[in-house]
# Entry
Amino acid sequence: MRVGVQIGVVFNLDKCIGCNTCTVACKNLWTNRDGCEYMWWNNVEYKPGTGYPRQWENQDRYRGGWVKKNGDLKLRIGGKLSILLNIFWNPYLPRMEDYMGKHGPWTYTYEDLHTNIPMTQTPVARPKSMISGEEDIELEWGVNWEDEGAGINKTALEDVNFQKLSPEEREAYLQYEHVFYFFVPRICNHCLNPGCVAACPAGAIYKREEDGIVLIAQDKCRGWRFCISGCPYKKVYFNWNTGKSEKCILCYPKIEHGLPPQCMHACVGKIRYVGVVLYDMDRVYEAASAPDKELVRAHRDIILDPFDEEVVSAARAAGVPESWIEAARKSPFYFFVKKWEVALPLHPEFRTLPMVWYIPPLSPMKTVVKDGVFDVSGEWLPELDDFRIPIKYLANLLAAGNIAEVEKALRRLIAVRKYRRSVNVDGEADASILEEVGLTVEDAEHMYRLLALAFFNERFVIPTTHREKVVEPYVEQGFRGFYEKMVKRIWHKEPLRDYPPDLGR
# Structure
């Protein structure tokens, strides 16, 4: 057992209202620069829908993530030779049309609203391309194009999460009277087995050992953009102004000082949780290689119990600071993901082992119309059979099609609500509700506390980073990308050495 540490994030989809305050906070802090106009390191997508960039989940089109071939785990985009052969032309990149339409990101001619020239009609701010400066452009697509269900009767037909539903089911769910929706905020997942790191020919992307954050060394990036293809979540972007790739950095300058990322600090609904996770680095490949239906379980299995003395001893031997071990014991990520098993990873079938997990949304309370009046005198909380959101859809989105994992999470969330209702309304706690789903009263009270009442320091358990002995991998190794190693071997007659084993190559 080789203990590693990782910053883990949980989003509670049941409370996300799609306000995009997180998006604005991130945009103003990190991507308000030339070349970043179309970048949204944090965005909130509407489901059902095709997302941003368009159809990012369709790996038949984009070839992101990992696949199992002949028993081995390989990049879907191909190996080193395939990448080198296509290094000057990558056919699997999203186009600008997939991000912001053929005219690219746009603004509006706000100056038309402030002119003192007399007009015969009310002035209008016309759309204007931020790239070419062309005015009166036709708007075709954007980061929140499907917000609140706009046009999903057309665009949602491309949603890959409907693939395992029958055409009749899909058609029914897109009808007005049966339609469902929920919001899915997305950032870089800072995966344990990141495809972007493995796909980069220049070796410019690396995963920090002290906290697991995945970063791009701007001085090493050559702009080949295979990191964009290798990331199945399409959370790496190309800056057309600098010629470098950029991505969410999880606000690591704040993390190092024990503060949460900006998007999470700004969240109005308080749906975001950050905590430290201890995991077994030796079992990452094994977990990523599991069959689709077992990926969620395999991912949970490599997350270690910070209350286990054997784990703690191994962590100390690996140099993990005591403050990080203590933080792992208070981590909301550990409780939601490992102990209570109510959070699930986004598309685990991509096999990158993402470290941003999601608590699935519950359907609204049931109401029955009788004689034109809503009658809520009966049972308010829905059972799984009454859910408006299809369980199959949630399973395709969050559990690689494993319906049992989604049902377990939803049953436990419903059980906690029913238990709290028995306490507050009936005046008598009914612990049998919890026993049926494998929870204790202590579990229910703790989960209720985190989901509904948690203070700032309970949602964000982030210790100060210890970087006294840290050396950035790209600095220590120098030329480590396989493209640059090949150049040195061919032109300078230098031997091609293997990758260090701790760099995940």
About this structure: The chain is about 30% helix and 15% strand. The two ends are 20 Å apart (CA to CA). Residues 475-479, 489-505 have pLDDT under 50 and may be disordered.
